Model the fold of this input.
Amino acid sequence: MPEVGLLPFARVALQVSTAVLPTYRTRFSKHQFTQPQLRAALCLMRYEDWTFREAEVRLREHSELRRVPGLKSVPDYTTLYRFLKRLDPKKIDDAVREAAWRLVGKRPRRRRGVRVAVDATGLSPGAISTFFVRRMHHHTQKPLPWRHWLKWLLVADLDEQVILAQSARTGPWNDCANLPALVGSASRVAQIGLVLADAEFDSERNHRYIRGQLGAQSVIPARRGKRTWRIHGVRAEMRREFPRRQYSRRALIETAISVVKRKLSARAPGRTLFTQMRQALLLGLAFNIYKLRHPLVSPGCQQSQIASSISLASEVRERAPSLENGGAHADGTTETAPAVGSGGERTTPGRLFFAHLASRTCAAGANHLVECFGDE
Done:
């Protein structure tokens, strides 16, 4: 399970869903569950990689999970499945952009725009274990006979490690023609200054769209065709003087994909392509909510444990009276310190330091538990 608690995640998922979804689909709805409540339950399902039946069982077992979204009763697993079938992919994209805007909008705007990368990955359609795949390949020397899989295409902000736009379809497929629509959808979240993509998206039309329509810089290696072919325009510039230093930042989108598969899920379960596509889109939404609840902290804002210990030691040294000086502080004031503690041991500045450090550590741990699981 990821390190972010279920209650804060469910709370943020409900807020994002309420911002983009109406309360009820039609005026003839049963008014038993709202649309934001059901989509928050689906996001929890993708966050923990539950099945529909497991989601129903978990909501039935934990009253706190029902209290945060405001569920008066437990939705049946068929209710969640039917809501997933009715869910419009455009509404999922709106929620992805809403969560990304809440995270990217807090950052000071760059003059040149944000740096994004485009990449695709495959998601498993079932729950088959990777150990079984390796053992089968070891014994038969043949991979699994999969002819098709689900291809998940996404545009990610390299600085915030958040998904700006996404799409899913059956693979294998060449998505070179889908780059303009995907990057155009990402530009609605933030102004784009640099687009990085691999050789799959090598096309003069993609360069023209990024540089002409969006006013951004595009870096795509020109590897289509033979070396003897004559190419023109931006592709010729990429082949002649390729900016390798800028292109090296594209590896950060591989990091984002790895985080999704390690912390959330590496599969898009479903018996039909229709269900698998919506499961993949919900996975991207769950990842953005996860990043919104657990944002990246700049290394310059973090205080190391050594620095905090040194500051704590100096604080205790200033406050604790020196036994050699007869209880005199550094500022000249005096204080009578007990020579014997409650346990019969002599009180020294070292013991005061470790006692104060233990109290601070327990307080920080208690605050973390309250943040993750609530005041209960």
Remarks:
- The longest strand covers residues 114-123.
- Confidence is low (pLDDT under 50) at residues 297-310, 321-331, 335-343.
- The CA atoms of residues 359 and 365 lie 10 Å apart.
- The beta strands are 114-123, 149-157, 162-171, 192-197, 217-219.
